[in-house]
Automatic annotation (TrEMBL):
Residues 22-41 bind DNA. The lineage of its organism: Bacteria, Pseudomonadati, Bacteroidota, Flavobacteriia, Flavobacteriales. This is TetR/AcrR family transcriptional regulator. The keyword Endoplasmic reticulum does not apply. It comes from Flavobacterium aquariorum. SUPFAM superfamilies: Homeodomain-like.
């Protein structure tokens, strides 16, 4: 039952917002009593923490699946972006923005967790792109990882509209890729941008 509550709460939080969804809403959606929820979670904050953990786990499982498909480095980034767009398109307000605004403590924990996972993911992508001659081989990989991480999470944490956030993330991805790309990489980037606009 606990897992079902976390799963349903995660869906509702992402669709309607962390602030607006109440314990009553979750109970009503699941056709259970609020008392049942409180049996597992003494307050909403704990339920939000567990929900963000589930979302984090799901996102990184999907990222690993995309990476395992062995796309080239630039296509891989576009596939990951597409996955984010599909996962969060139901929300009007950016989930991370809401979290930062209404639950700053939980937001900090989420960001600490994301730092390690995303840093590793971005680093592997850049190293892969260098091997494939899509990115320049004179890059300071760690610096570019920090640049991209700062850019993406600044957009996610400071843009209230999910639609606007998605648009800015595409521009950030293009900016990041152009900064690193070889001539071969630019050609691949143009191909991916063309597919995105179709």
């Amino acid at each position: 039952m606990k897992d079902k509550i976390v799963s349903k709460a995660s869906d509702l939080f992402l669709k309607l917002g962390f602030k607006s969804v109440t314990m009553d809403d979750i109970a009503c959606e699941m056709c259970i009593s609020k008392k049942t929820i409180y049996k597992y979670f003494c307050n909403k904050e704990i339920l939000i923490e567990e929900s963000t953990e589930l979302v984090h786990k799901t996102v990184h499982e999907v990222i690993n699946t995309i990476v395992a498909k062995d796309h080239n480095a630039i296509e891989e980034n576009f596939e990951i972006r597409k996955m984010f767009k599909e996962m969060f398109q139901v929300a009007d307000t950016s989930p991370l923005y809401q979290l930062k605004k209404h639950y700053p403590e939980i937001y900090r924990k989420v960001m600490d967790r994301e730092l390690d996972e995303c840093t590793m993911c971005f680093k592997q992508n850049i190293e892969k792109g260098i091997q494939q001659e899509l990115y320049r081989n004179d890059l300071d990989v760690d610096v570019y990882v920090k640049f991209y991480y700062s850019l993406i999470f600044s957009i996610k944490g400071n843009t209230s509209s999910e639609k606007e956030s998605t648009k800015l993330e595409l521009q950030a991805l293009e900016y990041h890729t152009r900064a690193m790309a070889t001539a071969k990489g630019i050609a691949e980037l143009e191909k991916q941008l063309l597919k995105t606009n179709i």
